[in-house]
Amino acid sequence: MAVVEVQHFLGRARDFLKGMENLVKEEFYVLDNDLVSYKYSPAVLGIHGAISYSDALRTGLGQEAVSSDDHNQAAYDLESLLKSRNFGNRIGIGHLKDLLSKKNSVEYRSVTVRENEIEDIVKHARRFADWAEKTGRALKIWG
Question: What confidence score (pLDDT) does residue 35 get?
Fold first, then answer.
């Protein structure tokens, strides 16, 4: 069952990140001129992609319940699971924590998120996704 769940979360994560990439150009955050009215979408997709990668990793590392309203707990749980397996490269946890700290302001608060903040979210989402892919392979979670 865990293998199926890992693949479900992994597929969702990759889907969200692909959606984010479809809204930005090249390696730098530049909204496609035809899609400029969707400026929050890359940020939301990047954040939710990171959450799904975290769910996949935590499930693959044996955590049974990954759903929670407290997404910040996911970062601490993932860090704890990696420490318990003596996995040294935990740099991605910082990217995840950064993304999760911006989730509410992007999704719920009635403030305008500046373009440089969205650029930062896209950058961290890309870095976390890269780290998560490598980590999943290194720990043989992806199969």
Answer: 47
Residue-level pLDDT at 114: 81
- Neighbouring residues of 5: CB distance < 8 A, sequence distance ≥ 6: 59
Q: Is residue 143 in some structural domain?
A: no
69 is a domain residue:
yes
Q: Based on the number of CB atoms within 10 Å of its own CB, is 28 exposed (0-12), middle (13-18) or buried (19 or more)? A: exposed
Give the number of C-alpha atoms closer than 13 A to the C-alpha of residue 83, restricted to the C-beta side.
Answer: 7
* Dihedral pair phi/psi, residue 24, rounded to 5°: -120, 160
- What's the CA gap between 23 and 69, in Å, rounded? 27
Domain limits for position 53: 2-138
pLDDT score at 32: 54
CATH number for 94: 1.20.120.330
Q: Which residues of the chain have pLDDT under 70?
A: 1, 25-38
**Three-class secondary structure of residue 24 per DSSP:** strand
